[in-house]
Amino acid sequence: MTGSVKTEEDAGPTDCWQICPRELIDWREWGDEFVVRMAGRAETHLLSAAAGSVLLAFLDGYTSMSIDSLFARAFDEAQAESKSAMSIGERAAMQAIIAELERLGLVARSTA
Amino acid sequence: MSLRRPDLVIAALRDPTQLTAASPATWDLLIRQSRSADLLARIASLLHERELLETIAPAARTHLLSARTLAFAQQDEVRREVAHIACALHSLSVPVVLLKGAAYLLAGLPAALGRTFADVDILVPRSRLAEVEAALMLAGWATTHHSQYDQRYYRQWMHELPPLQHVRRQTILDVHHAILPVTARLKPDSRKLLLAALALPGEQGLHVLAPVDMVLHSMTHLFHNEEMGHGLRDLSDLDRLLRHFATTAEFWNALVERAGELNLSRPLYYGLHQTRSLLGTPVEKSVLAAACHAAPAEPLRSVMNWLWSQALGSPHVSTAGPTTGVALFALYVRAHWLRMPPALLLRHLAIKAVTKRRPLA
Amino acid sequence: MIVADVTPRDLRRQLRGPGLRLRTGPFVTKIRSRLCAVADGITLHYAAHAVEDDGGFADFHVSVERPRGLRRWLSPQVEFRFDGNPTFAPLPGDQGFPMLEWGLNWCVSSYCHQFLIVHAAVLEREGRALVLAAPSGSGKSTLCAGLAFRGWRLLSDELALIEVASGQIIALPRPISLKNQSIDVVRAFASQAVFGPVVHETMKGSVAHVRPPFDAVLRAAEPAVPGWVVLPRFAAGADARLEPLPKARAFMCLVDNAFNYHVQGRDGFHALARLIDGSDCYGFSYSRLDDAAEIFESLAERKSDPL
């Protein structure tokens, strides 16, 4: 089976996201669930373990990140600096999580 | 009949420092009076500004702090609302001028100190009103006042749309196209106000009135209002605007000149006279003399000033005297008289009297 | 001086005249009313509460009277006024005491933002607070009343007052409000409970109040620290069951049941988080108060003896 490992130079337009600018986020984790409050919208939400981990990856990263970087940072600490290959199912799950965080107003696509 | 008590709110606004010596009974009455006037948070903030809150007795201080907490929360909500409004109207490229409290807050003015908020007021050009309304409705605001009469009252005769309420957030937005009703006797030109408006830094498409216009609008709104429940609060806002802006001869001259240009010299006279008289606002004697040219002739002048002095205190039962009710009624009638020509006024009052008796749907 | 020390005549004189200055927890309320039902209700339910001297400071000035107008002669109503202004629509004539109680709750939830206020019953054991958080109709008040007469100190049946700065929960012991079947259930369970008259045909059905235990009133100045957060649910015929509740869900439930969470902003978020940090969180379903009392007894023992 052939496949090419996508490098930075090879990749087509890579979508990146970041924490919404000017948004102040407070969060707490208990067991494997998170609660998060956004000061800008004055909304408080419950997040699943996976969504909370991705949010923390955003907060730790402080820059805009691609889906691959987010996955590595959120779920594979040992390889945080490199990009792990995601399975199709993992990629779909990540996209759904990011879409949810975007819907809640926590993250937004970055123009960088 | 209960004994008439002094207006402690006015005394507190004039000199907050004397509150450090206030007795528990005085605080009891002051908190009640200032709550009725919506000025408790302002008094708390004045004390905080002077680092005097810690000297206040704990029982009273608790209420002061609680009022401040609520005011801060309302201020945050206004900022969010203004951001939503800017977003909804962004694509229209229409100048949106914030009015009153929202303007003081977003412009960082001392008049926002300890202020509470019930709604947001904006001014847009009359020619763009339909587009603005459509864009707001698309973004989730819906009209209130559904009766045909009320809709016509606002759209045809008044200077604003019927108040809009956001379906999800339940917040209220008043969209004005002028600062006085179409039917009113005074007709300040809104285009001049819009032309002179200043863009808010960092806020897309949002403006506030130029300082002289902001002061004149505050005076016009106050001295044309039919309800005086917020009279003292509005007077306090005016006092703080003047203390902030009116520090140079240039400003005073510009204020008097602009009032003449906009046909608002009468409200200017009342505004300067009443803030100076009730709240001790420093107004140059020469400015007052210039403004007096627009004052009504005697004896009406004395009558009007007396009416304002009765009506502009805190609207609490303890400060009401035997003549307060009469004064308020007279000013209510006057406000309607100023809003509409007599035939229209009679019709309006008759319809309102009839619809009031019907049970609410 | 407490209400029980005031002669009935003097009580009526104060209520009809200058106002009775009643202390409840951290608040002093000046109450005026010409209604016998209110005077009787205060005499019964607030017997152990302190009456303050006249001429000082009161946190709230309230009255319960017949509304002005012709209707007062035709079909009497009662109206609650805060500093002279009506706050709710009037209610039919014999609901004066419930009206006072609802009004007093309204005063606190409207004006006391020094607290994060959650719609919950609160009890205390060995300094730790048991917060029973749930919307109306969940059996919270029934459970609260039961536990208040089985070794738990009542802090409040309706309002959990969480001091934002310190995280302590402040006591506001006042009559416990019960509805419909709960009235008979608690009567049967706690023979020592003292009930006021049952008021029928209110918006909530039949309502009666239970006098707070004297001990709870005497110890009103003692706050509590976080202990447990429990979401109760009355389920007819069910065995009593305590199930651990994920803390994040307990947190969200408190957010949903807080009166002034949005007023508190970030401080509110952190105050609730600290409450959850310090509490064991459970869901609880029950149908019999005896079972419930046993379960909470073992819960208390477990806390004091972690092994």
Word description of this protein:
The complex is a heterotrimer of chains A (about 110), B (about 350) and C (about 300). Chain A is α+β, with helices and mostly antiparallel strands and about 110 residues long. Chain A has a single domain, classed as Outer Surface Protein A, domain 3, CATH 3.90.930. In chain A, about 35% of the residues lie in helices and about 25% in strands. Chain A is built from three helices and six strands, in the order ββββαβααβ. Chain A has a three-stranded antiparallel β-sheet. The N terminus of chain A is likely disordered. By secondary structure, chain B is an alpha/beta fold. Chain B has a single domain, classed as Beta Polymerase, domain 2 (2-Layer Sandwich). Chain B contains 16 helices and seven strands. Chain B has a seven-stranded mixed β-sheet. The longest helix of chain B is centred in the first third of the chain and has 32 residues. The two termini of chain B are about 35 Å apart. Chain C folds into two domains: about 110 residues, no CATH class; about 190 residues. The mean pLDDT of chain C is about 95. Chain C starts with 7 loop residues before the first helix and ends with a helix. Chain C has ten helices and 17 strands. In chain C, α8 packs antiparallel against α9. In chain C, about 35% of the residues lie in helices and about 30% in strands. In chain C, the strands form three sheets. In chain C, strands 7, 8, 9, 10, 11, 15, 16 and 17 form an eight-stranded mixed β-sheet that branches. In chain C, a hairpin with a 2-residue loop joins β1 and β2. Chain C is globular. With about 300 residues, chain C is of the alpha+beta class. Chains in contact: A-B, A-C, B-C. The interface between B and C is medium-sized, with 22 and 17 residues.
